[in-house]
Design brief:
- The chain is an alpha+beta fold.
- 38% of the residues lie in helices and 21% in strands.
- The protein has a four-stranded mixed sheet with strand order 1-4-6-5.
- α2 runs antiparallel to α3, α3 packs antiparallel against α5 and α4 packs parallel to α5.
- The relative contact order is 0.12.
Length: 233
Protein backbone atom coordinates (compact mmCIF):
# COMPACT_ATOMS: atom_id res chain seq x y z
CA UNK A 1 0.00 0.00 0.00
CA UNK A 2 3.05 2.27 0.25
CA UNK A 3 2.95 5.35 -1.99
CA UNK A 4 -0.72 4.99 -2.95
CA UNK A 5 -3.21 7.85 -2.95
CA UNK A 6 -6.87 6.99 -2.46
CA UNK A 7 -9.81 9.12 -3.52
CA UNK A 8 -13.20 8.53 -1.92
CA UNK A 9 -14.94 8.11 1.41
CA UNK A 10 -12.21 7.25 3.90
CA UNK A 11 -14.50 4.85 5.76
CA UNK A 12 -14.89 2.72 2.65
CA UNK A 13 -11.16 2.97 1.88
CA UNK A 14 -10.18 1.97 5.42
CA UNK A 15 -12.45 -1.05 5.48
CA UNK A 16 -11.61 -2.35 2.02
CA UNK A 17 -7.94 -1.52 1.49
CA UNK A 18 -6.14 -0.89 4.78
CA UNK A 19 -5.01 -3.86 6.86
CA UNK A 20 -5.14 -3.95 10.64
CA UNK A 21 -1.96 -2.90 12.48
CA UNK A 22 -0.35 -1.50 9.32
CA UNK A 23 -0.14 2.28 9.81
CA UNK A 24 2.55 4.14 11.77
CA UNK A 25 1.04 7.61 11.99
CA UNK A 26 -2.36 9.21 11.42
CA UNK A 27 -3.08 12.92 11.19
CA UNK A 28 -6.60 14.08 10.42
CA UNK A 29 -8.13 17.52 10.17
CA UNK A 30 -11.87 17.05 9.68
CA UNK A 31 -13.56 20.44 9.28
CA UNK A 32 -16.65 21.22 11.30
CA UNK A 33 -19.02 24.17 11.34
CA UNK A 34 -16.99 26.25 8.90
CA UNK A 35 -20.08 26.92 6.77
CA UNK A 36 -18.17 25.99 3.63
CA UNK A 37 -18.68 23.58 0.75
CA UNK A 38 -15.51 21.78 -0.29
CA UNK A 39 -15.24 21.32 -4.03
CA UNK A 40 -12.75 19.66 -6.33
CA UNK A 41 -11.84 22.04 -9.14
CA UNK A 42 -10.61 20.99 -12.55
CA UNK A 43 -8.61 22.87 -15.18
CA UNK A 44 -9.17 22.72 -18.89
CA UNK A 45 -6.56 21.52 -21.42
CA UNK A 46 -5.20 25.07 -21.69
CA UNK A 47 -4.64 25.31 -17.95
CA UNK A 48 -7.56 27.66 -17.35
CA UNK A 49 -10.09 26.95 -14.64
CA UNK A 50 -13.00 24.89 -15.86
CA UNK A 51 -16.59 25.51 -14.92
CA UNK A 52 -16.85 21.81 -14.19
CA UNK A 53 -16.44 20.84 -10.58
CA UNK A 54 -17.46 18.13 -8.21
CA UNK A 55 -18.76 18.96 -4.76
CA UNK A 56 -16.68 16.75 -2.49
CA UNK A 57 -18.71 17.39 0.62
CA UNK A 58 -20.69 20.08 2.34
CA UNK A 59 -19.39 20.99 5.76
CA UNK A 60 -22.87 21.58 7.10
CA UNK A 61 -23.51 18.42 9.03
CA UNK A 62 -27.13 17.37 9.48
CA UNK A 63 -28.82 14.51 11.25
CA UNK A 64 -30.25 12.32 8.51
CA UNK A 65 -29.99 8.88 6.92
CA UNK A 66 -26.20 8.92 6.59
CA UNK A 67 -25.69 10.03 10.19
CA UNK A 68 -28.16 7.44 11.43
CA UNK A 69 -26.32 4.73 9.50
CA UNK A 70 -23.00 5.83 11.03
CA UNK A 71 -24.57 5.77 14.48
CA UNK A 72 -26.01 2.28 13.88
CA UNK A 73 -22.58 1.07 12.65
CA UNK A 74 -21.07 2.11 15.97
CA UNK A 75 -23.86 0.41 17.92
CA UNK A 76 -23.32 -2.83 15.98
CA UNK A 77 -19.53 -2.68 16.32
CA UNK A 78 -19.53 -3.92 19.91
CA UNK A 79 -16.86 -1.30 20.60
CA UNK A 80 -16.70 0.30 24.02
CA UNK A 81 -17.41 3.66 22.42
CA UNK A 82 -20.97 2.58 21.55
CA UNK A 83 -21.95 3.32 25.15
CA UNK A 84 -20.33 6.76 24.90
CA UNK A 85 -22.07 7.68 21.64
CA UNK A 86 -25.42 6.45 22.97
CA UNK A 87 -24.99 8.68 26.03
CA UNK A 88 -24.17 11.65 23.78
CA UNK A 89 -27.33 11.03 21.76
CA UNK A 90 -29.39 10.96 24.94
CA UNK A 91 -27.84 14.19 26.23
CA UNK A 92 -27.40 16.21 23.02
CA UNK A 93 -30.34 14.97 20.98
CA UNK A 94 -30.41 14.36 17.23
CA UNK A 95 -28.79 17.43 15.72
CA UNK A 96 -25.89 18.62 13.56
CA UNK A 97 -23.33 18.07 16.32
CA UNK A 98 -24.43 14.48 16.91
CA UNK A 99 -24.30 13.86 13.15
CA UNK A 100 -20.69 15.02 13.12
CA UNK A 101 -19.77 12.95 16.19
CA UNK A 102 -21.41 9.83 14.73
CA UNK A 103 -19.58 10.26 11.41
CA UNK A 104 -16.31 10.76 13.29
CA UNK A 105 -16.83 7.92 15.74
CA UNK A 106 -17.30 5.17 13.15
CA UNK A 107 -14.16 6.34 11.34
CA UNK A 108 -12.06 6.67 14.49
CA UNK A 109 -12.86 3.03 15.31
CA UNK A 110 -11.40 2.02 11.94
CA UNK A 111 -8.40 4.31 12.35
CA UNK A 112 -7.64 2.68 15.69
CA UNK A 113 -7.83 -0.74 14.03
CA UNK A 114 -5.30 0.08 11.30
CA UNK A 115 -2.74 1.69 13.63
CA UNK A 116 0.32 -0.35 14.56
CA UNK A 117 0.83 -1.06 18.25
CA UNK A 118 3.55 1.64 18.26
CA UNK A 119 1.46 4.06 16.15
CA UNK A 120 0.06 7.46 17.04
CA UNK A 121 -2.94 9.54 16.04
CA UNK A 122 -3.23 13.33 15.88
CA UNK A 123 -6.76 14.73 15.57
CA UNK A 124 -6.94 18.42 14.63
CA UNK A 125 -10.20 20.09 15.63
CA UNK A 126 -11.53 23.28 17.14
CA UNK A 127 -13.09 23.99 20.55
CA UNK A 128 -16.56 23.56 19.07
CA UNK A 129 -16.34 19.79 19.42
CA UNK A 130 -12.88 18.98 20.85
CA UNK A 131 -14.23 18.07 24.30
CA UNK A 132 -16.73 15.61 22.82
CA UNK A 133 -14.10 14.12 20.53
CA UNK A 134 -11.73 13.60 23.45
CA UNK A 135 -14.39 11.59 25.31
CA UNK A 136 -14.92 9.48 22.18
CA UNK A 137 -11.16 8.96 21.73
CA UNK A 138 -10.81 8.01 25.41
CA UNK A 139 -13.45 5.32 24.89
CA UNK A 140 -11.72 3.98 21.75
CA UNK A 141 -8.04 4.25 22.73
CA UNK A 142 -8.36 4.30 26.54
CA UNK A 143 -7.77 7.36 28.74
CA UNK A 144 -4.23 6.18 29.54
CA UNK A 145 -3.36 6.30 25.84
CA UNK A 146 -4.02 10.04 25.78
CA UNK A 147 -0.63 11.72 25.41
CA UNK A 148 -1.34 15.43 25.29
CA UNK A 149 -3.52 18.24 23.98
CA UNK A 150 -1.65 20.60 21.69
CA UNK A 151 -2.82 24.20 21.29
CA UNK A 152 -2.34 25.41 17.74
CA UNK A 153 -2.17 29.20 18.15
CA UNK A 154 -2.85 31.20 15.03
CA UNK A 155 -0.02 33.49 14.02
CA UNK A 156 -2.41 36.13 12.72
CA UNK A 157 -5.90 37.05 13.80
CA UNK A 158 -8.91 35.67 11.94
CA UNK A 159 -11.27 38.61 12.14
CA UNK A 160 -14.03 36.78 14.02
CA UNK A 161 -14.11 39.21 16.97
CA UNK A 162 -16.32 41.59 15.07
CA UNK A 163 -17.82 44.76 16.46
CA UNK A 164 -20.74 43.88 18.64
CA UNK A 165 -19.60 40.28 19.15
CA UNK A 166 -20.13 39.52 22.81
CA UNK A 167 -17.37 36.97 23.28
CA UNK A 168 -13.62 36.54 22.75
CA UNK A 169 -12.08 35.92 19.36
CA UNK A 170 -11.13 32.39 18.31
CA UNK A 171 -7.33 32.30 18.13
CA UNK A 172 -6.46 28.62 18.51
CA UNK A 173 -7.27 25.10 17.36
CA UNK A 174 -6.81 21.86 19.27
CA UNK A 175 -4.77 18.79 18.32
CA UNK A 176 -5.45 15.67 20.39
CA UNK A 177 -2.49 13.27 20.49
CA UNK A 178 -3.11 9.57 21.28
CA UNK A 179 -0.92 6.50 21.04
CA UNK A 180 -2.38 3.06 20.41
CA UNK A 181 -0.29 1.58 23.20
CA UNK A 182 -0.20 3.16 26.62
CA UNK A 183 3.32 1.82 27.18
CA UNK A 184 5.28 2.11 23.94
CA UNK A 185 4.97 4.35 20.89
CA UNK A 186 7.25 5.75 18.22
CA UNK A 187 8.63 9.17 19.14
CA UNK A 188 11.30 11.05 17.20
CA UNK A 189 12.77 14.08 18.93
CA UNK A 190 13.08 17.16 16.72
CA UNK A 191 16.04 19.48 17.19
CA UNK A 192 17.01 22.88 15.82
CA UNK A 193 20.33 24.70 15.99
CA UNK A 194 20.93 26.96 18.94
CA UNK A 195 20.95 30.68 18.32
CA UNK A 196 24.55 31.93 18.52
CA UNK A 197 23.69 34.77 20.91
CA UNK A 198 21.91 32.36 23.24
CA UNK A 199 25.00 30.12 23.20
CA UNK A 200 27.25 33.06 23.99
CA UNK A 201 25.26 33.92 27.12
CA UNK A 202 25.05 30.30 28.26
CA UNK A 203 28.72 29.56 27.68
CA UNK A 204 29.91 32.79 29.26
CA UNK A 205 28.20 31.75 32.49
CA UNK A 206 29.54 28.19 32.38
CA UNK A 207 33.09 29.28 31.49
CA UNK A 208 33.54 31.18 34.75
CA UNK A 209 35.08 27.98 36.14
CA UNK A 210 37.01 26.77 33.08
CA UNK A 211 38.64 28.34 29.99
CA UNK A 212 37.08 28.61 26.55
CA UNK A 213 38.89 26.31 24.09
CA UNK A 214 39.64 27.25 20.49
CA UNK A 215 37.07 24.87 18.94
CA UNK A 216 34.28 26.32 21.05
CA UNK A 217 35.47 29.86 20.34
CA UNK A 218 35.29 29.11 16.61
CA UNK A 219 31.76 27.72 16.97
CA UNK A 220 30.64 30.84 18.81
CA UNK A 221 32.49 33.14 16.40
CA UNK A 222 34.40 34.79 19.24
CA UNK A 223 37.08 37.35 18.54
CA UNK A 224 40.57 36.95 20.12
CA UNK A 225 39.76 39.81 22.51
CA UNK A 226 36.55 38.05 23.60
CA UNK A 227 38.42 34.78 24.20
CA UNK A 228 40.94 36.55 26.40
CA UNK A 229 38.22 38.36 28.30
CA UNK A 230 36.22 35.19 28.94
CA UNK A 231 39.35 33.36 30.06
CA UNK A 232 40.12 36.10 32.54
CA UNK A 233 43.20 37.39 30.73
Amino acid sequence: MSGQLFFGDNLHILRRYVNSNSVDLIYLDPPFNSNASYNILFKGPGGKKSQAQIEAFDDTWHWGIAAEEAYDDVMRSGARTATTLRALRNSLGENDLLAYLSMMCVRLIELHRVLKSTGSLYLHCDPTASHYLKVILDSIFSPISFRTEISWKRSSAHNDAKQGRRQYGNIRDVILFYSKSAAEWTWNWQYTEYDVNTLRISISIQMETRPVDIALATLLRLSPAEILAMNGA
